[in-house]
């Protein structure tokens, strides 16, 4: 008599799979329908991203080529580059700079005034979303009041952010919002998604005051001034580089690079971010990076994408940017040493 098969509890299966590296996870999609459905859940994607042991970047570096860049922060930091196999049906042959991300999903523009949301690891793409020429696409998030539903939404705005449009996944209908503006203001082209809410670095055109702006998709309300940024010193210049990222899954980190010295300051928030209470946000200095003047690590405006990762254990900064010739680079700063890897 053959003993009956004993299956592991489903919650234990989920826990085990959430620790499997993404590159290996792709092969398990065909094991069964339940596993395939699990990999597509927002909750599972969050756990996967949170448990990633090393910083990763996705680069669009050439026609039809997307690369995963794995950064190993040991005594001798190194970089592993892996081309992600893609179906041509998912990606058009173009190099995109305006890419937004949320829970492992990438939002990008494609020809003929369309948007596409892709999961590069699972080789999936949404039906293309119809857009319009006057909009600047600023990010993808979700309604965090409906945690059991994958209610992703896309945000677009006019150049001066006096008009904004929101659409929900699976719909071609855009809802218009209008904002009265006594003081013209701008926001960066690239958002940070934290618990579904979008955040940007904003700036008043006349006073050049910099701050954080937010959009709560659960209420579809725009908070023009969510909280202040650090680095309010007189020496801060308009051309200085400013970038915002998520820290410890529930906080902000802020990168400020001086255009004159090229030196970098990293700030982090002391407590978890509450999207309803920006007044309680407090910043503290996390690290300083002295950049040699001969380095081609240049400052970039709010209109250019600059992603970075800070490692608390090794006190390292990993920065994905463009060099002075426009090539994609990964800079690794650890102590007084800065190394780089270029992509062509």
Q: Could you explain how this protein is built, in words?
A:
This is F-box domain-containing protein. Residues 2-48 form the F-box domain. It comes from Eutrema salsugineum (Saltwater cress). InterPro entries: A_thaliana_F-box, F-box-assoc_dom_typ1, F-box-assoc_interact_dom, F-box-like_dom_sf, F-box_dom. Strands 4, 5, 6, 7 and 8 form a 5-stranded antiparallel sheet that branches. Strands 13, 14, 15, 16 and 17 form a 5-stranded antiparallel sheet that branches. The protein has one domain (54-343): Neuraminidase (6 Propeller), CATH 2.120.10.30. A hairpin with a 2-residue loop joins strand 14 (192-194) and strand 15. It is globular, with a radius of gyration of 21 Å. It contains 4 helices and 25 strands. Mean pLDDT is 75; it is low at 88-97. It is mainly beta.
